Amino acid sequence: MSDVIEILSCGPAVTVQDRGRTGFLAQGMTRGGAADDLALYEGAALLGQSPDLAALEMVGMGGSFRVTTDTRIALTGAPMTALLDNAPLAWNASHLLPAGATLNIGGARKGTYGYLHLGGGIDTPVMMGARGAHLSAGLGAALSAGVTLPIGPDKGDTVGMTLPVADRFEGGRIRITASMQTEQFDGATQERFTATAFRRDARGNRMGVRMDHDGAPFVAADQLTIVSDVIVPGDIQIAGDGAPFVLMCECQTTGGYPRIGSVLPCDMPRVAQAAAGASVTFEFVPFEEARAIQTRATSERATLASALVPLLRNPRDIRDLLSYQLISGAISATSDPFTKGS
Amino acid sequence: MTDTPRIRRVGLQGLLVQFGDAMSEPANRAAIAFRAAVDAQNWPQVRETSTSLVSTFLSVDLAATPPEQITDALTELLHTQDWYSAPLPAGRTLWEIPTLYGTDAAPQLEEAATAAGVDPDTAIAELSQARVRVLTIGFAPGQPYTGELPPHWDIPRQQALTKSVPSGALVVAIRQLIVFTNASPTGWRHVGQTAFRNFRPDSATPIALTPGDEMCFPSVSEAEYTRITAQDTSGDGGAQRVVLK
């Protein structure tokens, strides 16, 4: 009997996620995987393991969890309130979750997608090459109370580390590059698009995120005659209502609406994490610059572990402070440390 | 528009070879044949490939790979033959899928027949004898867009969407037939119902269909359809498959 994590209760949209699956595009299935894939790399760095291991993705709110063996955990993505048997836990950090203790993860304080990583990863059966649920395809499902998930073998032992992360949870400037239909939008429309302050609409999920704006709709030259063509995550589709819709990890594989540009993969976590109402602007970057930005981000993602620092606990957060031996190891001012037997 | 075929970048995520600006049989054939040719090259930079109606997509990390590396090779490959008259890849499958037309199971047969200018019996005869090709797979896993039907089946999609057609629904518009993967709203008209499942997540081959495969939808009686649904556990829905030479 392998060790498990048990879901005592959880929000409506908690799923197992990993880096998704490739090889099924021709058969109508996009990659899927974690909506914020940077969070997978952060979790991997915190636990000193592979970013390919599966974690729990929690949309908007987490849940209540228990494990059957002492388990290393890491918390990444949208910061949520986290309590270990009522003691607060730092986000973007690794911790030890003792067997039988209760981990409570509440609502997101900002952003949308929070992640709970386990040392050894979640070891559910691989489905079509990956463990992640692909909800729009009907592969896998959201988790609910009472579900137990096997934990993989953990090769590490470090906890109590934290990773400083840049805020990617409040929208902001999103870098995009021209794509195959950008030129269907005239120069004035492209300029207005990049000058417009958008708000992340409440309508958003793992398939796509709609952006609201004040002012005229955006329209392509041959809006109605574009033949259906390939879609990749990051494409910004302008649908019939003239509002941009950023296609996300679980988008469909083809579509007939024109696309004004494509978000750089390294900026997709920021699109995914922007909460409803967050301000967003889009900026075209020239192709070679886009390549350089993406290459830099990929290399930074691979070397996150070098930024780890020990988690310094705030004494106010230590509920049993007085039980700690705080003066152990202090040096006496009077005794001679070189005197034998002292 | 500029001449086709043409090569386009898809953001930083790949390259697209477009063989037309609208659906056409030769352009669809070219896209499918060209994809097979690209796959046969085994270029290490290409993560995977797919086709849409009239284009071939190569998934390539364009941040790591300079696009010229691939576009030069693609241009060379495009020049090796006339892709619009290329034969389709060998080893394709013909799927014969028993279909219940009309009745309460597929309530828009009459409406679709009227739109196509034929009576319902003629519509059933035409649709059940048509042999169509999987033009592309998309929207949902394994969901085939097939065609092309004769020109009088160039009927528009409905203005108002049907709230939901069930999994296995055979729907028609714009000279194409689709079998739906999952229950879904649609503007296409629901003319037949099959017990064929495009996507079987728990199966060793979760997705049966491949672009280029051929399909036909022979009419069966309500009694026969009921018998099929009662007995079939495979998801094949009584389909016969024939390997095409």
Quick synopsis:
The complex is a heterodimer of chains A (342) and B (245). Chain A is an alpha+beta fold.
The rounded Rg of chain A comes to: 23 Å
Which shape of chain A, going by the Cα principal axes? globular
Alpha carbon gap, first and last residue of chain B: 37 Å
Radius of gyration based on Cα positions of chain B:
19 Å
Structural class of chain A: alpha+beta
Looking at the overall shape, the CATH architecture of the largest domain in chain B is Beta Barrel
Number of domains of chain A: 2
Strand content of chain A: 25-35%
**Quantity of strands of chain A, as a count:** 22
Q: Which chains have the largest interface? A: A-B, 42 and 45 residues
CATH superfamily of the largest domain in chain B: Cyclophilin-like
Total discrete domains of chain B: 2
Count up the helices of chain A.
Answer: 4
Name the strands of the widest sheet of chain B in spatial order.
6-13-10-11-8-7-14-5-15
Structure notes:
The complex is a heterodimer of chains A (342) and B (245). Helix content of chain A is 12%, strand content 30%. Chain A has 342 residues and is α+β, with helices and mostly antiparallel strands. Chain A has 2 domains: 173 residues, no CATH class; 129 residues, Cyclophilin-like (Cyclophilin), CATH 2.40.100.10. A 7-stranded mixed beta barrel of chain A has the order 13-20-17-18-15-14-21. Chain A is globular. The termini of chain A are far apart. The C terminus of chain A is likely disordered. In chain B, the strands form 3 sheets. Chain B has a 9-stranded mixed beta sheet. A 4-stranded antiparallel beta sheet of chain B has the order 1-2-4-3. Chain B is 23% helix and 27% strand. The radius of gyration of chain B is 19 Å and the shape is elongated. Chain B has 5 helices and 15 strands. Chain B has 2 domains: 80 residues, Gyrase A, domain 2; 151 residues, Cyclophilin, CATH 2.40.100. Chain B is of the alpha+beta class and 245 residues long. The interface between A and B is large, with 42 and 45 residues.
